[in-house]
């Protein structure tokens, strides 16, 4: 049971899963934590984080993920060489296969997940359901990759962490999480974010991004209760402002009329790091084939052949006190 003042009676233990690197023409699974000393003396201290939820339930998943990945690639290419950490929520097995087959990914990134074997579906075969994945630029030396499964989740949700070695033997800890959807009584998201935040605070700098399903009023202050900063608010965004909304702009008209707009997706951070910039991306990105567009519009009542119902969120950071 979760006590908001004390945490879980028994804190969920991290599950180390390793990651994959494309070496000599094939993906190679590497252990976590690493068995050798990881040198972070040359790790870039300025970088950006990009997070996007790609709706798992819509039709033509391969076409949608291909268009989404192509869009992300074009955005990363415009960043002037700044390393970009990419986080995806609601990945399905075909999404991970496409990521693993992509030449740009193979050349540029190490990947936490190429199958769904570490997603928390204990009573189903590997790869069932949907989950999270992080693409880590190869310039970042990885010390560890691990998940923490939320004990109170009825939707198999977890937090995926990557520890990156940075100068002066410090650690940058990044996390993507997809908090519990919908309304629950008692609420489940406060306990889940508290678990992830506690782990983030243990590093020199911590950054968390993902679909936080911030659909209720209490969600607005969860970052403050966990001593986290909100990149959107820190860069001048206003609570409740339509300019900050990430869900409801690309979906069925019925859903928008019933639920309105919301800022479900966020970038939160703590420790010795400063946010330099924040924004959203992915508005009106559609599948590339007209037949696929028409199928999405006809089957789901969409106005366009959108790849997902969420905007992505991005933020640029500078790590401090490592010189």
TrEMBL record:
Question: Which cofactor(s) are needed, names only?
Answer: Mg(2+); Mn(2+)
Q: Which branch of life, at top level? A: Eukaryota
Q: Which UniProt keywords apply?
A: DNA damage, DNA repair, Endonuclease, Hydrolase, Magnesium, Metal-binding, Nuclease, Nucleus
Q: Could you tell me which InterPro entries the record lists for this protein?
A: Endo/exonu/phosph_ase_sf, Endo/exonuclease/phosphatase, TDP2-like
Domain Endonuclease/exonuclease/phosphatase, residue spans: 51-310
Q: Where in the cell is it found?
A: Nucleus, PML body
Q: What is this protein called?
A: Endonuclease/exonuclease/phosphatase
Q: Which organism is it from?
A: Triangularia setosa
């Amino acid at each position: 049971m979760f006590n908001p003042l004390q945490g879980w009676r028994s804190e969920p233990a991290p599950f180390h899963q390793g990651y994959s690197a494309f070496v000599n023409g094939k993906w190679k699974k590497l252990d976590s934590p690493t068995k050798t000393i990881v040198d972070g003396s040359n790790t870039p201290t300025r970088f950006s984080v990009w997070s996007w939820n790609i709706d798992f339930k819509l039709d033509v998943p391969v076409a949608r993920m291909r268009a989404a990945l192509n869009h992300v690639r074009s955005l990363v290419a415009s960043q002037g060489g700044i390393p970009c950490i990419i986080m995806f929520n609601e990945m399905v097995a075909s999404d991970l296969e496409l990521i693993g087959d992509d030449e740009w990914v193979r050349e540029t990134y190490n990947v936490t997940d190429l199958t769904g074997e570490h997603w928390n579906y204990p009573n189903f075969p590997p790869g069932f359901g949907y989950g999270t994945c992080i693409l880590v630029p190869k310039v970042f030396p990885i010390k560890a990759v691990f998940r923490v499964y939320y004990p109170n989740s009825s939707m198999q949700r977890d937090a995926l962490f990557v520890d990156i070695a940075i100068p002066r033997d410090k650690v940058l800890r990044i996390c993507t999480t997809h908090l519990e959807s919908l309304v629950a009584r008692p609420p489940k998201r406060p306990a889940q974010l508290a678990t992830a935040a506690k782990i983030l605070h243990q590093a020199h700098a911590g950054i968390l991004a993902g679909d936080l399903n911030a659909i209720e009023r209490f969600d607005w202050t969860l970052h403050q209760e966990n001593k986290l900063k909100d990149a959107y608010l820190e860069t001048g965004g206003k609570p409740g402002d339509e300019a900050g909304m990430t869900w409801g702009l690309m979906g069925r008209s019925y859903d928008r009329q019933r639920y309105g707009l919301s800022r479900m997706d966020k970038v939160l951070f703590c420790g010795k790091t400063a946010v330099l910039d924040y924004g959203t991306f992915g508005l009106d990105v559609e599948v590339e084939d007209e037949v696929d567009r028409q199928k999405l519009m006809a089957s789901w009542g969409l106005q366009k052949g959108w790849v997902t119902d969420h905007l992505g969120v991005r933020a640029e950071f500078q790590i401090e006190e490592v010189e």
